[in-house]
Amino acid sequence: MSPGTIALIVVAVSVVAWALFMLNVTVRRERKAAIATAPAGTAAADRTEAESTSTPADVESTSGKEVTVEKVPEKQRKPLTSGQLAVSRRQFLNRAWTASFSAFLGFFGMATLSFLWPKLTGGFGTTITVGDHKELLKQIGPKANFKPLFVPEGRFWLTYYEGTGDAPVYLAVGAADAKMQALYRKCVHLGCSVPHCEKSSLFECPCHGSKYRLSGEYYGGPAPRGLDRFPISISGGKVVVDTGDTQIGPPRGTNTWDAFSEPQGDLCVPT
Ligand code: FES
Predict the structure, then answer these.
(1) 3-state SS string over 153-211?
(2) CB within 8 A of 240, min separation 6: which ones?
(3) Which of these three, 94, 116, 138, is where a domain ends?
(4) Counting atoms of ligand 1 from 1, which one is nearest the CA of 191?
(5) 186 CA → ligand 1 middle, Å
(6) Are residues 27 and 141 in the same domain?
(7) 266 occurs within a structural domain
(8) Among 68, 114, 201, 211, which is 20 to 30 Å from 98 by CA?
């Protein structure tokens, strides 16, 4: 059950409970008013009188505990007349108004919640199916000169990975099994988007010059660590990336893939 459905059920139950409460209050108020205005000698008036004249004799003691027993005089047991049982026009209007106002509030509340509730049905923050695993390996692997693929929908770079996976984060993202990684393109220094430099095979941030290896590990600049990344799983031969579960990048000094530990050519952003 989605969070939106749960919220709607909670709101609906609350509104119904509130409506029942209000109905109860209204009915009690009307009963009191009817009793107060009932002519002497009617059942309602007799009941009022009996309540006001109850004596200490009504209180009995049972095993040390005081229990109040209401003794209803015989004359109060007269059935109410049809006129007393009937609902007056004012009562009917009051109840109808309360019910319709409650229904309006309920529908309005549900519609507002439904409108405001985030609908994460795709894009960044959700699970994204990128494509066929084998095809993607060809696209970003040795045959494609290790050129990473940018997935705009998930804001990540899909990169080939053949390192040792010796840092804890590699286990968390499933890099060794999938032979690839989904690197969040957001620079961990101050958040700029980090492009890939084909010449150096590094990710080089244009803002303050932070540099990251193809594996997303820290190479240079002011960044405090390697690029953050998302878990990858293979489902039915498809690569699935969970962009709602960001994993913190490996610390400075991590180097799990010797082949790309140094730039492969000139830098795009000189230091
Ligand atoms: S934001 Fe990338 S280096 Fe500062």
Answers:
(1) CCCEEEEECCCCCCCHHHHHHCHHHHCEEEEECECCCCCCECCEECCCCEEECCCCCCE
(2) 127, 128, 129, 130, 232, 233, 234
(3) 116
(4) 1
(5) 9
(6) no
(7) no
(8) 114
- Tokens for 23, please give them: 């109905």
Pair 49, 74 in one domain: yes
In a domain, 268, yes or no: no
Paired tokens of 262: 């140094």
Q: Which helix (H) or strand (E) holds 100?
A: helix 89-116
pTM of model > 0.70: no
CB 69 within 8 A of CB 58: yes
pLDDT of residue 3 exceeding 80, the answer is no
**Is residue 233 over pLDDT 90?**
yes
- d(CA 150, ligand 1 centre) in Å: 19
Task: Provide the pLDDT for residue 161.
Answer: 97
Q: Residue count of the chain, please give it.
A: 271
Which of 63-67, 74-78, 132-136, 254-258 has the least mean pLDDT? Answer: 63-67
Q: What residues make up the domain containing 180?
A: 127-260
> Pairing mode, if any, of strands 211-212 and 202-204?
antiparallel
Asked if residue 188 belongs to a domain, the reply is yes
Q: Is residue 267 part of a domain?
A: no
- Ligand 1 centroid vs 163 CA: distance in angstroms? 25
pLDDT at 246: 97
| Mean pLDDT (the chain, rounded) | 84
Tell me which of 116, 147, 167 is where a domain ends: 116
Q: What is the pLDDT of residue 256?
A: 96
Which residues lie with the beta carbon below 6 Å from any ligand 1 atom? 187, 189-192, 205, 207-210, 221-223
Q: Which ligand 1 atom is nearest residue 187's CA? A: 2
What percentage of the chain has pLDDT greater than the value 70?
77
How far away, in angstroms, is 194 Cα from ligand 1 center?
Answer: 8
